[in-house]
Each structure stands twice: as C-alpha cells, then as structure tokens.
What we know:
The protein has 260 residues and is mainly beta. It has one helix spanning 2-28, and strands at 40-60, 64-88, 91-107, 113-118, 124-148, 154-175, 178-202, 205-223, 232-250. It folds into 2 domains: 1-30; 38-259, Porin (Beta Barrel).
Amino acid sequence: MIKLAIAVVAFGALTAATPVVAADMALKAPPPAPSAPWAGWYIGVNVGGSFGRATDTSTFAGGVPFSATSSRLDGVLGGGQIGYNLQSGSWVFGLETDIQGTGERGSAPSSLSVTAITTLPAPVTTTGTLGDSEKLPWFGTARGRIGIAAIPGWLLYATGGLAYGQIDSDTTFTVAGVSAINNFHTTRTGWTVGGGVEAWLGHNWTAKLEYLYLDFGSFSNTFTAIAPFTPITLTSHVTDNVVRVGLNYHFSPSPVVAKY
C-alpha cells in the first residue's frame, strides 16, 4: 500500500512538471529568421588588386600619328562601400556606391624616337625621344545590383553602372639631352560591369568576393615639345580589372539571420 501511494505521488509530480518544461523549451526556441534577410542598409570595407591598361597614341599638330604604346597599370587598392537592398522572394535588387584608393601605375617604353627635318638654313635632322606614364590614384563607382538568394545564406549577383576617377599622365620629351616634362591630371567618367558572391558570416556580418571591369574611355592632352617639333597630342584610353574581397555590416537583419 505504501509503495502504491509513493508511485501515485511521483506520477502526479511528473505530470505537473511536464507543462513547465515544455513552456521553458518554448521560451528558449530561437526566434524566426526575417522573411527578407538581405533587405536594408549596409556599410563595409574592401581590399584587393587591380590590373589595368593604358593605350596611348601620340600625334603631331594636324593629326599625324607617330607612335602608339601600351602599358600595364597594376597595383593594390582599398576602400569602402555603402548600399541598400530590396528583396522579393529569392530576388534581391540594390544600389551600391564605393570609393577606392589605388597604387596603380605603369610606364610605356621611352625608347621610341621621332624625327623632324628642317630645311633652312640647311637640311638638319633632329631626333627626339618620348616617354609617358599613367597613374590611377583613386576611383569610385555608383552601381545597381541584381542578385538571387536561392541558397540560404548566399547571394549571387551581377552589377553595373557609373565609374569615375582621376588619371595622372606624365610625359618626358627629350631632344639633344634637353627634356620637357609635362604633368596632366584628368578626372574621367566611364562605365563598369561585373559580378560577385556574398555570404553570411554570422550575426549581421557578410563577406563578399567581387570582380569589376572599368572603362574610362579616351581622352587627350596636348603639350609643347622642344623646337623644332610642333606641339604633341597624347591620346589615352584607360581600362581596369578589379578583384576584391569585402566585409559588410547589415543594419536591418536580426543577429540570427545567418541561420535562416
């Protein structure tokens, strides 16, 4: 009889405790992930490398070309970005702008020579040597983004829009040991297109890997050469390839968004 009473009491205590344990487990369950984890504002930093090219054509006054060179513009870069996303189902639409500082620079061969012939008071042949170099100290972009988040925690996207930046051109023209040095600073606008992949790391942080192609178009600078050479116009076309990694902080998602 005593054993039966003890069993009844134990069963009653276990039955009473079960709702409490269930309620406690319900309280500790993780909150649901947001329905649009990529939506909202974000800000971040990036670092990478850029591999550009400057193609230069030199002409005398009157449009007579006498040389064409091509030089690589390689260097490291780093900067920051800010953007905003909208999400509809698995599709993500956004705008992003960034600004970069770079160490890109390159030089064309300085061994190309040009010859001028004067006829008075007697025929004289004069040879000059032209060398030029370019730098891209900074650039920025303003781009649209469209992506698909078909795999939880990952975003695959394409991007494109406006590119702008400063291009520094330096020329050295030498005749008979005398040099004329010219420096030009040009702010150019162009276009960019590319793509990338972004993934959640945890809490509100994501990491991205991105490629961009930039085209700053063609531009010309005219400088006065040493007599008897006429003024020379240097026409340049600068393009760039950028590969970079970035880290973004998203303001809208909950800290458990990486688990959605």
